[in-house]
């Protein structure tokens, strides 16, 4: 099996799995007042401290959630509601056009159901935010902006965003800035307090932790309405009994990923550059999407003109090579990637794309297997697309 | 063989895929996404195009242990089936969209793509028997679908597998249960999958608009009522005519014909519905194209009766002389020729009905 889909999820780190199992054997609700509860609470709070230290945050700023999607929903909706409650004029959201669906659809929902106004911020051909457009939006709507949300790194094409510049502009206008750093943590340096962001989403399973646990790093002075109500856990922002074992494993994984980030990035960048070069040799018509620099180390994303991504995916899957079209497909009709469309690709090119993402278990043999299977798959997929044009 | 199993999310296609695996084929399951907006199609029990159906198909593929993908066929389906459906009604004919879907989507667009991707055949859960290029009715006559497959060419059929033809629906359901397929008890799909509420007349009205015209009596030429669009009527229809005055002879009136040019619906007594000469266009022959008149039985709508006939070839058309009159034959439906056979009636060919008329008097 050649697994080239680490951006979807990556294998658990052995030490994280170990942590999970040892904690999962113990009983304990971290909200209970007795000794068993206190033991669970201690695991949670130590994990919170480890995550805070790894991400340059204070422990009180770490709010555990069920994962990246919840973190994004909580930040976007919660901050919007809180800001609007204080000042009813603040109903505008600035968001990049290339956000993950967890942000994109939350913003769209607020627009449809909660009277939000939205300014979608354009990106350049590499997927990087147009800072001039951001500046202009701030000048134009200064008094009506509830929040700005721009991801740290794009999940499809790997583009790193100018987070610090965005945070600087947002801070100048006193507007909270949320950033979805789900793909970034462990791949590039992420320091919450240095970034000046108001809120940051992170999840465990993209960096060697379990699925089902994530966090929203939320600055203490940023108000956020809960989307789930109940026992008032997590600063009253996120109710629900905590997954103690999952949290312990996530903390171990985040800590390990951040500690090894520099060497991992160097390793992945070398491997990725080889992948890009050899894919280009095997299929000369392949087009690399996204930037060459300022890119997630493990991300390679191509369009294969004349092919459909889903046909390529199927053909590679049949040969044991696992990758992603990178676009959202909800069992119904696969839509062309909104990210590529925002980068100026036409629908045909947007539908012709595949993402290969590397991670901590990737090897050169994975690339060997890919470039061996790819030319034949591309040829077949091209023939299949040709017959469908009737 | 490498085989692509078209999986609708129903019990038939799930069992067909499982049988293909058991027959030793390398099988990949594919669900066809046919709607641009899945929520607008019939849900669950009654259609094949909803998100729920896609999930059912995926789950069945998991249980069978085969890879599974969703293919976006929405655009082709819209052009070749939905728009064709509307255009046919607008032209005064009565189309069969399931037949068109087999002809243009499942055994054309999907099959062509599958072949290009390296597959040898497409397997479906249709109830019909296919061996050595011979297409026969299913052993389960109540569920037989040979009528909607008879439009396929020998080339298309040479790359089709129908593993269910020798089983009854009850046997298929029992087998699905035994295989642990959750769709074992899923109700059959009915009606037209792209008309969410089953209201064909309203569906057409939304697309073709109101086109008021006269309802005219065939015998006297009298105007018996008005309609909002001739497209909403089908030959043989009795209900919903909304005649404002009774027919001169006081008898029930049926739709005899639809004339789009004058936007007229012509009605008459039941006896006037009888036809015995049927012309079909664009004939497809599964056997060699006959040079002599063929004695056979013909079927002119899905699950309709069969009538003995003598069929002759006229260029690309065929002409069927019925040995006894048929009632309610609508242009746009398929006429399918069967050769009766104790091992299952054999499909000889088919054509699209263009004209039907009464030639002989008192044949009955």
Description of the structure:
The complex is a heterodimer of chains A (390) and B (364). Chain A has 390 residues and is of the alpha/beta class. Chain A has helices at residues 14-24, 35-55, 68-86, 101-113, 131-141, 163-172, 192-195, 244-259, 261-282, 309-318, 338-342, 347-350, 364-388, and strands spanning 2-3, 62-65, 92-96, 117-121, 145-149, 177-180, 199-203, 214-218, 287-288, 299-303, 321-322, 353-357. In chain A, the strands form three sheets. A seven-stranded mixed sheet of chain A has the order 2-8-7-6-5-3-4, sandwiched between helices. Chain B contains eight helices and 17 strands. Chain B has helices at 11-22, 51-64, 74-90, 97-116, 146-149, 154-157, 169-178, 200-208; strands at 2-6, 26-33, 68-72, 121-123, 128-131, 134-137, 160-161, 213-217, 223-227, 254-259, 264-268, 274-285, 294-299, 306-314, 317-327, 334-339, 346-357. At the A-B interface, helix 10 and helix 13 of A face strand 2, helix 2, strand 3 and helix 4 of B.
Looking at CATH, the homologous superfamily of the largest domain in chain B is HUPs
Determine and state the CATH class of the largest domain in chain A.
Alpha Beta
Shape of chain A: globular
Amount of helix of chain A: 40-55%
Strand fraction of chain B equals: 25-35%
CATH T-level topology of the largest domain in chain A = Aspartate Aminotransferase, domain 2
Approximate strand percentage of chain A: 5-15%
Overall tally of domains of chain A: 2
Which outline of chain B best applies?
Answer: globular
Question: Which stretches of chain A are poorly predicted, pLDDT < 50 over at least 5 residues?
Answer: none
Count of extended strands of chain B: 17
Question: How do you describe this structure in short?
Answer:
Chain A is an alpha/beta fold and 390 residues long.
